[in-house]
Amino acid sequence: MPEFCVVMPMYNAAAWVEQAVQSVLSQTYQDFHLIVVDDGSSDASVELVQRFADSRICIIENGVNRGIEYSLNRGIAAADCNWIVRLDSDDECLPGRLEKQAAYLKVHPDTWVLGGWAEIACPDGRRFSVHMPVQNNWIKARLLFQNAFMHPAVAVKRKLFELVKYSQKYPGAEDYDLWCKLAVNPAASFHNLPDLLVRYRISRHGISASERLRQLSSTHKVREAFLKRCGLALGPGLRFYQAMADGAEPGRGVFTKDGRVVSETAVAVNKATWPEKFELQEAAGFVELLASLRRQLIRLRYTSYETLYNELAPRFTRFARSMHELSPVCFGLLAGSEFYQENVR
Would you tell me how many other CB atoms lie within 10 Å of the CB of residue 298? Predict the structure, then answer.
């Protein structure tokens, strides 16, 4: 039985699938099988994968298009291994990816989900990286608002899929739903390696407006279900943060390189009128919001903005100190966040 099974759903991926498969076969760590699940492709995707003469490759064909969630569940069901590794058919494993994940998991076998950072490849040739939170508690805190893993970079303990599966109820957010379902278990252990593991390719055509709306709708539903499991209800503070998170595409929103947007956000937060007592989700939202602002202000080296940030921090702290009255489950999720550790404890 191999340690890893790389599960790769595929649909009309002839343009990139050869590079994706080769990036797996070229890994320095070789104890893996590769399961490619074709979801009714009408191009030469299957024939291109069949050209690889490697006994570790297994091709499963759905016959008709059933969706990525169905394909993932089918590939995982066929996997006999300790860890499910994800990769999409238009992405690539960067050199050493599997070796780095195997080394970490050997030392930390109780990990449930191990992800990493990603290099984003744009159609115009531009490249930039996406860094996800590293530590377990900070990952869980971020999941209260948005995804905390790059899906093609994860390795997931195989036996977890005996308890949960990818749901077709949340198209475009099936992975976020999975992590949230796992996160409510106190034993859940998450980690992101602070290293680039995959090259994530952005399509030249992007996603359509209708697909984007569907993805946002799914994300909202997953988020609300997660908060409900944690004993929370949506409040205006969280809705404000949601709107920001939904616009935080690479290079935009609070993650932009444009200092003007960062500063305008900080000014808006500073002018807001706070209630005397925050609901937990409002406090949680500003944990992430202020931490995001701080990271950007430091990186952009706008000292006047850093001063503004320092003025904001005590205002948040005043509300955070009363969090012992709030949901103990979510208090535990928040207690490991960077901002909380630096400014409240």
Answer: 13
Query: Per the structure block, which two tokens stand in for 139?
Result: 């990952």
Q: Which CATH number fits domain 4-208: 3.40.50.1820, 3.90.550.10, 3.90.1150.10, 3.30.420.40?
A: 3.90.550.10
β partners of residue 305? none
Q: Kindly state the tokens that stand for 193.
A: 């390696």
Q: Domain locations in the chain? A: 4-208, 230-343
Query: Which range among 76-85, 307-316, 319-328 shows the weakest confidence by mean pLDDT?
Result: 319-328
**The pLDDT value given to residue 262:** 46
Instruction: Over range 250-261, report the average pLDDT.
Output: 39
Q: Pick the residue with more confidence: 260 or 23? A: 23
- CA-based nearest residue to 287, from 309, 316, 328: 316
Q: How far apart are CA 212 and CA 46, in angstroms?
A: 28
Neighbours of 267 (CB within 10 A): 12
List C-alpha distances in Å: 202 to 91, 122, 153, 206. Answer: 9, 5, 15, 7
Is 113:149 a contact under the CB 8 Å cutoff? yes
* Chain segment 262-285, per-residue pLDDT in tens: 445 444 544 444 444 444 445 555
Whether pLDDT at 110 is above 70: yes
pTM score, two decimals? 0.76
pLDDT exceeds cutoff 50 at 294: yes
